[in-house]
Amino acid sequence: MISSRQPEKRPSVLLFDLGGVLVENKHIVDGLGAFLDRPLDEETVRERWLRSASARDFERGRISPGIFATRFLREWGAQSDPQAFLDALVSWLGEPYPGATEVVARLRGDHHVSCLTNCNELHWAKLATFTRNFDSAFSSHLAGEVKPDAEAFEVVLNSLQVRPENVRFFDDSRSNVEGAEAVGIRGFHVAGIRGLRECLESEGLL
Q1: 144, β-bridge pairs
Q2: pLDDT tens-digit readout, 19-70
Q3: Which of 92, 115, 134 is the last residue of a domain?
Q4: What pLDDT, on a 0 to 100 scale, did the predictor assign at position 40?
Q5: What pLDDT sits at residue 1?
Q6: Is 44 left (phi over 0), alpha (psi -120 to 50) or beta?
Q7: DSSP for residue 145
Q8: pLDDT attached to residue 29
Q9: Which helix (H) or strand (E) covers residue 42, if one does?
Q10: Domain, as residue range, for 36
């Protein structure tokens, strides 16, 4: 059966995760490994972080960095001075991938280009220069909602006054992609700038 509600041939909004898609963040795996009793693979770390109660509260702007560090270390069974952990946390977020700024600039000619990232006040400050390249930018710690929760995507939809079928979303977490699709946004699981480029090209967006 053909749906009576047809999506636009070209989406009006392109919505991107930052870490792991446009910004290098692989240091989090090795970085966290230094605080844990046993090593964890990248996908396990990413998914466990998404479910972490302390990380969710920190990335929703509900607790201070100091409280987060204390709670997180206890939650993960890690032994460290909280301030040393926070110092390390800031360093785990890398720089934008080479070519990331250029990709965003090219896409802005035909689309509203935005980002939706699970972030905290420390990392958001570090990303300030890069996020100026977007038409709009959404961080969980300011929105008060985190991916993959539906409410995080609804913040974007309501703010931009756009229908879900007119948005394309790109993230390196399968859980976040599934969260976007649950509210009607077409999602793409991509990893790094190369994977993103390939996806955009295959969709005729770049």
Answers
A1: none
A2: 999 999 866 767 777 777 777 777 777 778 878 899 999 999 999 999 999 9
A3: 92
A4: 74
A5: 37
A6: alpha
A7: -
A8: 66
A9: helix 42-51
A10: 27-92
Tokens coding 134: 């977007």
Q: Which tokens hold the place of 40?
A: 């964890």
**If pLDDT is split at 50, 70 and 90, which confidence band does 5 have?**
very low
DSSP conformational letter for 188:
E
Between CA 132 and CA 97, with CA 18 as vertex, the angle to 5 degrees is 85
Shared domain for 113 and 154, answered yes or no, is yes
Q: Return phi, psi of residue 113, to 5°.
A: -105, 125
**Looking at the structure, do residues 111 and 193 belong to the same domain, yes or no?**
yes
Residues 178 and 79 in one domain: no
Give the CATH number, domain containing residue 76.
Answer: 1.10.150
Q: Could you give the count of Cα atoms lying within 13 Å of 56 in the half-sphere of its Cβ?
A: 13
Q: Which of 92, 108, 142 is the last residue of a domain?
A: 92
CB-neighbour burial class of residue 115 (10 A; exposed 0-12, middle 13-18, buried 19+)? buried
Query: Rounded to an integer, what is the distance from CA 129 to the centroid of its chain?
Result: 17
What letters, b where the CB count within 10 A reaches 16 and e where it falls short, cover 85-103?
A: bbebbeebbeebbeebeeb
Q: What is the mean pLDDT of residues 116-125?
A: 96
The whole-angstrom separation of Cα 29 and Cα 138 is: 24
Least confident of 33-37, 94-98, 117-121, 189-193: 33-37
